[in-house]
Each structure stands twice: as structure tokens, then as C-alpha cells.
Amino acid sequence: MMNNQISRIRIHVGFKSIVVFLFAVFFTGCGSIMRKMPIQMARSSQIDFYKQYYTFGEETDIVKAQGIVARLMGSKETWVHFTKKYARTNEEFLADIKHKRFYIQGSINLTTYLSPNDHDLFFVDATGRYAVVYLNRQGEKDVIFTADYAVKNIPFSIKNDILTKQKLKIKVSQVLIRHFTISNASNTNHILDDLPLFFEIKLEKVGKSNQVFRMKYEQHDGQPQQHDVYFEGEKIGYMLFDKLPYNNAKLFDLRGRGFLRKDYD
Length: 265
What we know:
265 residues, 2 domains, 12-stranded antiparallel sheet, 26% helix
């Protein structure tokens, strides 16, 4: 009987030793086992559609509004063209802007990707297209001109910009404007480089995890979320993203960063 007890003790101790050994092997090799995913698996892309409205201030601040329009739309003639074409005074046209009869309708294709060697650092590239629209007094939408724009290689911190601030302040790097005919002249193009123009995209957490986010499309009361637009450090308007049935499926899930390789030196 004593021999049987000793045998059972030896088997139990031997089994525990094997378990401890296996755990030691697993955890000592954990870094190499977990970091197997190539860095491009962390790259994501999404397309969104929006309207952008301007808020240039009081109706009497004509000079300020004219200056911003000239800088953003490539020509000092643009404001004059609008007012002449639609027979509006400066004050009436600024009021039209305030009442959302003059706005931008566009799209943006955002791509995000992590730094290969610092998984807190990520970059944003984007391209987009928009049309400048005027809702005339007959209720018709006139397209004044169209433009393409680019966002080039903007760096962000996951810890500071996503987890803490929950917003991305995206600088527009370049705009290519295709003008329709102004004052009976031929069509003209304008390339605007290094504009002091920023979109501030707000984010929100999803579910119970502190590592899953998406673009904030709506406020808690169901109203569209405003994403502010800045020019030379001053707010000049806001963007409203289209309410589409599957917007909430566009997630940024940060939980898998521990699986990504870091041997890119």
C-alpha cells in the first residue's frame, strides 16, 4: 500500500513538472510565437461621403469671407462670379452661405497604416473629391466647380490622438480645382499646395473595449456629428458625414498590435 502511494506521488509530481516545463517553453517563446503577422495586416482603408458647410461669421464681415473664399477656391474672381451669376449682393450671398444654400458635397478615401518599428505611431494618407454646390432660388443644385484633394503622410500617435483625444486633425496637403467658365473666360485650373486647412475628425469608442474605435457619425441624441474645419487656425465650418446603414461597421480595432512583426530594421 505504501508503494502505491509513493507511485501516485511520483506520477503527480512528474505531471506538474511537465506542465511547468510546457508553460515555461510557451512564455519564453511567446514573443516569437505572437509576432507572426506582417505589418500590412494593420493597414486599413475606408471611404466616406460628406457635406461641408461654411460659417464665416456675421453677415457684415464681407472682407473676411471674400479672403477665405479666394484662398480656398483659387481665385479672387470666384466671389464676384457667384454674386453676378445669381444676382446677389455681397450681404445676400453671405447670408446664403449661413443658411446652407452654398456648400461642398464630397467624398474622402482614408488609408491608415502603422509604423513597422513603432506600433504606437501610424500614418494617414487620403484622397478625395468634392463639388461646390449652390442651391439657387428655383431649388435647383448648381455645381460651380469640382476639385480633387490629397492628404499626404500625416503622422499620429495611437496613445495621444486616438486613446486620449479621440480625434484626428488631418491637414489637407494639396487641392486641384477645376473651374467652370468664369466671366466668359475659358476653364481654368488651380493647384493649391500646403494650405493651412484642417479637418478635425472625431472618433468614438465601440463596445466595452478601450481599443476599438470608429468615426463618430452621430451624437447620442441621433443628430449628425459635426466635424470642424479649420483654416489658418480658425474654425470656418464643419463636415457632416452621410448617414449610411453600415457606417458603424467601419471599425479601427487596435487589439491585435501584439501579433505584428517588428523585425523590419
